[in-house]
Amino acid sequence: MRLDKLLANMGYGSRSDVKKILKKGIVQIDETIAKNGKTQVNPKEQEVFVNGEKVEYKEYVYLMMNKPKGVISATEDPVQTSVVDLLEMEDQIFNPFPVGRLDKDTEGLLLLTNDGKLSHEILSPKKKVGKRYWAKIAGEVTKIDVQAFSEGIELDDGYITKPGQLTIVSSGPVSEIELTIMEGKFHQVKRMFRSVGKEVTELKRLQMGNLQLDNTLEPGEYRELTDNELHLLRN
């Protein structure tokens, strides 16, 4: 890739900023001073230094966020705050995007990456990647609901969902549940409960596939996935 693109991607500023750095003669490819931004460099085989400091190149970024309420799952929006707006500039430069969506009033586990292949595999219905949610429900959730969810729920548009695994945490006028589904239809969890006469009042995603939300992350906080978490996600 071009040297100026690599440096810009690694957070050394805009193309014009990088051009100024190159003019100073403080950029090296291996042992050679490089002043031309068009110079081709293979970051997997060559080392790049700026002012004697090695540039740690990475192509992809994998971020786990505890998405807060009131923020939309999008890369940008002219009016509303998006999840990408919550990222530090050093992570924004990789142009990450949310893998799937959480409603504006839903919180919990959200993966952001610029790895399109991994995103496709996670979201592909053929892969059957389960998504586990915790929810607070207005209404008493019963064993009848558990059975209905295990057979698939007919939504308001006539679509019948794939079977979901519903677990009752507590039941009463206000119930708490956990639900694992393999799909991600628009407002699916809320619509499934609405179909059985109940309303979701709070919703939080806890898990995607084998990746679980880090409970130490406060709403709005995020961190990079560990190598082990990335391995779990890919498998």
Which short descriptors sum up this protein?
4-stranded antiparallel sheet, Pseudouridine synthase, 23% helix, RNA binding, 235 residues, Alpha-Beta Plaits, alpha+beta, EC 5.4.99.-, PsdUridine_synth_RsuA/RluB/E/F, Structural Genomics Hypothetical 15.5 Kd Protein In mrcA-pckA Intergenic Region, Chain A, isomerase, 3 domains
What would you note in describing this structure?
The chain is of the alpha+beta class and 235 residues long. It has 3 domains: 52 residues, Roll (Structural Genomics Hypothetical 15.5 Kd Protein In mrcA-pckA Intergenic Region, Chain A), CATH 3.10.290.10; 88 residues, Pseudouridine synthase I, catalytic domain, N-terminal subdomain (Alpha-Beta Plaits); 79 residues, Alpha-L RNA-binding motif (Alpha-Beta Plaits, 2-Layer Sandwich), CATH 3.30.70.1560. The chain is 23% helix and 26% strand. The chain contains 7 helices and 13 strands. Strands 5, 6, 7, 8, 9, 10, 11, 12 and 13 form a 9-stranded mixed beta sheet that branches. A 4-stranded antiparallel beta sheet has the order 2-1-3-4, with no helix packed on it. Helix 1 crosses helix 2. The chain is elongated and about 70 Å long. The mean pLDDT is 94.
